[in-house]
Amino acid sequence: MLNDSFINKIILVAGASGGIGSSVVSRLSGSDSNLIAVYNKNHPDFQTDNNISLIKADLTKADEWDRVLHFTFQKYGKLDVLINCTGVLIPGDFLNQTEEQINEMININLSSVLIGTQKALKLMKRQKFGHIINIGSIGGIIPMPFSTVYSATKFALRGFTHSLAQELKDSNVSVSLVSPGPVNTKMLLLEADHYKTSIAFLNKALKPEKVADSIIKIINKPKTEVILPYSLSIPSRAVFLFPELFSKSYMVIEKIGIWRKRSYIKNQFDLSLQK
Length: 275
Hints:
Elements: E1 10-14, H1 19-28, E2 34-39, E3 52-56, H2 62-76, E4 81-84, H3 99-127, E5 130-135, H4 148-167, E6 173-180, H5 186-193, H6 208-220, E7 225-228, H7 233-241, H8 243-274
């Protein structure tokens, strides 16, 4: 997978301390590419090799994006790939969520991605090549009750990415979206901890490394969207096209999700005991 096409590639990973972002950096650390790994609050736990530049930045702020991109071009003179992995989920009844929680999800999941994409795109258009990869969610294709704002940001991100892909179809810059189902990260543990969430547990949770591998494949061979696991591709798109299907079948979907959620929590509890 890490073939000669990665030689001297400059790859910026936003949200490098998260489960997916850190897995992408770890997978690429053994390649001949150079990585700029950007984190905010949590320091990444991956091994920092010679080809990795670690930068702390709050990417909800435009001037922080300017600082990161200025560093990248000062050091390498180009940017081949931007991977937007930033994301936050705060589960709960929408009626009870605070303005601060709503704004945090919108700013991190959507606004920061739009700002960073626009700034990176200007540079990529000037250099006449580049690839932007956004990390979406199945929650951007099917509704997620009790993770309503998170779902709304991912629906918006999906619409943005597909729209921008059409704008750029005659250019040398590609835009892709990776939309995974549940991924075994801290975010999924938050959903497991909330008594009402269930949609995220309809499928077995993917390992972050599996998502990272798909992202690396897209770097090699750009696609507009990849849905993971592939078994969710057709049913999720069917629900998107015919939203009444979701409403009519929600009671059954919820029961399946609750049953699988209990199994997930039990497995996590058993793993913690083993440790």
